Amino acid sequence: MNVVLLAEVTVEQVIGGAERVLREQALGLAKQGHCVSVIARAPFESAEATLSIGSVTEQRYPVIRTSEPAFVWSSVQNALQVFDRTRQAGPIDIAMIHQSLAGLGPILFRYGTVRRWLYVCHSLAHEEYLTRAERAATTLERVRRRLSVRARRWIERMVIRRCHHVIVLSEFMKRQVMATHGITEKQITVVPGAADPAKFYPAQDRTEVRRELKLPESRRLLFTVRNLVPRMGLESLLEAMTMLEEEQQNVLLLIGGEGRLRSQLEQQIRNRGLEASVQLLGFVPEDQLAKYYQASDLVVMPTLQLEGFGLVTVEALACGTPVMGTPVGAIPEVLRSVDPLLVTERTEGTSLAKTLRLLLKRFREQTGERERLSKKGREVVERRYNWVAHTTDLDRLFVSLSKDRQVSSNRPAGNLSKSDHSISANRNVERTAKPRKVIHVITRLDHGGSAKNTMLTALGHDRIQFEPLVVAGCPGRWDAQGGQAATEENCRQLEKAAVRWMLLPSLTREVHPIKDAQVLWQLVCLFRQEQPALVHTHTSKAGLLGRVAAWWAGVPVIVHTPHGHVFYGHFGPFRSWLFLQVERVLSTITHRLIALTEAERQDHLDRVVGEADRFAVVPSGIDRERFMRARFQGKQQPDWFGCPPDALVVGSVGWLTDIKGHEYLIAAIAKLKQDFPPL
Question: 576, 568 in Cβ contact below 8 A?
Fold first, then answer.
């Protein structure tokens, strides 16, 4: 498959968990036989625009860092440009978004160009921001901080809800995403984080590794590598070191990593008198990380909050080093599979000190205890938490999602054979899922071809697969009486066929800002409540409000049938130009545009409304049985219309508006009557 990964980090340099996951997924999927490319934010202004690592190509987009609005705008715009260049190489089967802002532009404006969208949620964006942002000192800063939090949450929710599936690294993150963004359990798959057992492995001689790193050979070494930010719990770990008392003389804590807390940690080390027991290593290079794991007696994860997985945990276990961690996030999921003793009761310093003291005592007094934990941890990684297993699970998920798409596309509504129906009936319609909800939205459900087309489409749905709902507006000032009667008749037909319907009085053809805003919100609430698989809008006004509401509510598939257009200037140059611009924008969030004729399709393409691969030509139809009955009832007599018996009758049915061309017909009849007096 052609797989594209979109991220705000790069595969070139691994400085944290997000980079590690991105790199291992890209390289691992390439080894599985996929064609993999990465679209990443440029790490700095002068960074290369393109680079290759193995068979993986990374293309980078620049951003403007002068302000947050400029940063967001340039990220969306430039990521979209790089995405467009990438998809020129061929259709994209899978697009995996690793950070919401990196995928915002492509998923909003190029949704239909990708067969399946996936979101890899490392942690919740707004919560991660809160843990890293500086404390607000003024009211203005607090307001700015709050707005930034809301914006991050809103962007992530919008992106996640538009994805076909969400991938998380732990059960903890699965619960977090479901609770925060309202994603159902069937939309999420846990693909655990991992380590590379070939890169992270136990040392044959730990003493030799310590010599290489110039570490003391006789002391108990504790090691942690963290971003130096408040959520990592490093202050609590220093407090625990103070409480170790007599054990402290023989224990050396090594803290790797950089961050804004470094100066504060240095001050705390001095204040607590821990200069001989704690060392801040700074950034630990990738090629030395495994050696520090190997050299340590115990790795500590003192996290206070937001541990979406914690790659450090499984990397250390792969090196044969036991890990002690707090009961936060995904840490217990991994460590309890090794030994529940490795998880502290709470996160404060006293709890850390208690578990540290117990483990160090057991290492000292119980021969082989550390080796037992070392062996068990390595086995857990080899069995479950390795990148081969991780990318294999991803590959299976890709295949599963592709099969789901093929089934849905190969079995369209109304295409079940008789044998299919009999099998379903005999097995009491054996299926695990309920019929998928389809909502049709039309401005007026009264007269005309668009209303009939919508009615026949809704009534023709295969009820085994689909559950239709028709939402319509009320007649406006044109032909209000006749329109009301026709609407009521159509609603009775829907009700008789057990098709649900709903009328929105504020949805009219006229432009009315207040009423239109009301309808937009009503549709958003309706779509969120019903959670349809597809929204199909009909006609211009319903197409505008319905598609925006469906996009806002995160409806998976949006389809629109224009039923004609007014690009040609009937309503005046400005309104026609404005309508054209609106349709161009809306076409970017529409997955399928249905034209009734090939000429209508070409007319849209000539005006750059939609892309060719998003169009389908589906001619409108009629109720054949009704007109066949009328045919066999005999020819209607001209005198029924007040005409002489020998008259030649020419008729036209349509709205009495100038765009229907009745005046041209009248002028033509006047000329023809000279040659055909009975006309």
Answer: yes
CB atoms within 10 A of CB 166: 24
Residue by residue, DSSP assigns 591-610 as: SEEEESSHHHHHHHHHTT-S
Single-letter amino acid, residue 142: R
Band (405; pLDDT cuts 50, 70, 90): low
Q: Distances in Å between the alpha carbon of 537 and those of 444, 454, 523?
A: 12, 9, 12
- The structural domains of the chain, with segments of one domain joined by +, span 2-190, 206-384, 434-624, 638-679
Question: CB count, 10 Å around CB of 402?
Answer: 15
Determine whether 264 is exposed, middle or buried from the number of CB atoms within 10 Å of its CB (0-12, 13-18, 19+): middle
Taking each helix axis as running N to C, give the angle between helix 349-365 and helix 369-383, from 0 to 180 degrees, rounded to the nearest 10. 110
Residue 1 is encoded by which pair of tokens?
């498959």
The CATH architecture that domain 206-384 belongs to is 3-Layer(aba) Sandwich (3.40)
Handedness of CA 632, 634, 640, 644 (dihedral sign): positive
Residue 126 has pLDDT above 70, yes or no: yes
Q: Would the pLDDT of 638 be above 60?
A: no
Helices (H) and strands (E) counted in the chain, each on its own, are 24, 20
What distance in Å separates the CA atoms of residue 145 and residue 167, rounded to the nearest whole number?
28
Amino acid at 179: A
What's the order of all strands across the beta sheet hosting 298-301?
A: 278-282, 251-256, 220-225, 298-301, 323-325
* Both tokens assigned to 366: 């119980």
Which residue, among 595, 654, 602, 601, has the nearest Cα to 620 in the 3D structure? Answer: 595
217 contact partners, CB below 8 Å, separation of at least 6 = 207, 210, 211
Residue-wise pLDDT tens digits, 498-519: 999 999 988 988 888 999 999 9
632 pLDDT band, cuts 50/70/90, is low
If DSSP codes are grouped into helix, strand and coil, which group holds residue 559?
strand
User: b/e per residue, 101-110, with b = 16+ CB within 10 A?
Assistant: bbbbbbbbbb
* Model confidence pLDDT, tens digit, residues 544-569: 999 999 998 889 899 999 987 666 65
The pair of three-digit structure tokens given for residue 415, joined into one six-digit string: 């295409």
Residue 213 has pLDDT above 80, yes or no: yes
Predicted local confidence at residue 426, as pLDDT: 39
Token pair listed for 170 = 């732990």
* Torsion 220-225-226-232 (CA) sign: negative
Q: What is the average per-residue pLDDT within 292-317?
A: 92
Structure tokens at 101: 């802002």
- Matching fold, domains 206-384 and 434-624: yes
Average pLDDT, the chain: 86
Alpha helices by DSSP H, listed for 336-447, are: 349-365, 369-383, 387-410, 418-426
Identity of the residue numbered 283: F
Q: ∠ at Cα 283 (277, 286), nearest 5°?
A: 115
Return the CATH architecture of domain 434-624.
3-Layer(aba) Sandwich (3.40)
Residue pair 303/326 in contact (Cβ under 8 Å)? The answer is: yes
Q: Which two tokens stand for residue 432?
A: 């695990």
CATH 3.40.50.300 fits 2-190, yes or no: no
Q: Which residues pair with residue 120 across a beta bridge? A: 167
155: pLDDT strictly greater than 70: yes
Which of 131-140, 339-348, 484-493 comes out lowest in average pLDDT? 131-140
What predicted TM-score, i.e. pTM, was given to this entire model?
0.67
Q: Specify the range with the lowest mean pLDDT, choosing from 62-71, 246-255, 310-319, 545-554.
A: 246-255
Whether the Cβ atoms of residue 317 and residue 338 lie closer than 8 Å to each other? yes
CA–CA dist 399, 390 (Å, integer): 15
User: What number is the average pLDDT over the span 295-300?
Assistant: 95
Quick check: helix, strand or coil at residue 232? helix
Helix (H) / strand (E) element for 490: namely: helix 480-496
